[in-house]
Amino acid sequence: MSLTPELLLHAYSVGVFPMAEHRLDSDVFWVDPKWRGIIPLDGFHISRSLAKRMRRNDYRVSINHDFTGVVDGCADRFETWINAEIRAQYLELHARGHAHSLEIRDRHGSLIGGVYGVVLGSAFFGESMFSRRTDASKIALAYLVDHLNSAGFSLFDTQFLTPHLASLGALEISRAAYHYRLKAALKRRACFGTPPIPQAQEVIQRITQMSYRL
Asked: I need a labelling partner for 160 at 20 to 30 A (CA). Which of 43, 96, 137, 179 fits?
């Protein structure tokens, strides 16, 4: 099946997403999990150890500065579902303003972590993330959650639930519950944008305060 940006956006709007068996497999299949992973935007968990690492400020955060680098970082593993066609189409989605990345660099400027995904309405569909240093992907997610809240998003889809995501507050909901939330999110508009990056303490404080409201 040949992917196009239009087909991808339609797929997300009805709750499915593409995958390949591995990087060398040219075939792409569609996935609509029975149980869907999401990160509640008011329920992200920053542990004491993560907060301590964030306060070190020995990293730099940016948005949409290196989308290609983040996608390639996510694909740089033994097993990956990102084949050449998926890579090319997401780069095109980014060029059209529908896909975004958040990057984490060390003090020397090397890319050490990041996350990327697709935006429709007030939904952010997280596609993948990677980490080359301890907690780099967790830091990326913390900044992303803070950014999504500030920008008016209402749904953060992670596709599946992993132990890594569960430790940060992610949970599973049924397919029916996900489609209900997706329908509501598509009716609202949010602008991902490229705002100034806040200080770590601001991010920690806002996320912690929001979690206390639960």
From this structure: 96
pLDDT per residue as tens digits for the range 121-139:
999 999 999 999 999 999 9
pTM across the whole model = 0.95
Which residue's structure tokens are 């040219």?
26
Instruction: Label residue 138 left, alpha or beta by phi (over 0 means left) and psi (-120 to 50 means alpha).
Output: alpha
Q: How far apart are CA 73 and CA 75, in angstroms?
A: 5
Spell out a b/e string for 12-30, using b for 16 or more CB atoms within 10 Å of the CB, else e: beebebbbbeebeeeebee
**Domain 34-79+96-212, CATH among 3.40.50.2300, 3.10.450.50, 3.30.420.40, 3.40.630.70:** 3.40.630.70
* Of 46, 12, 47, the residue nearest 146 (C-alpha): 46
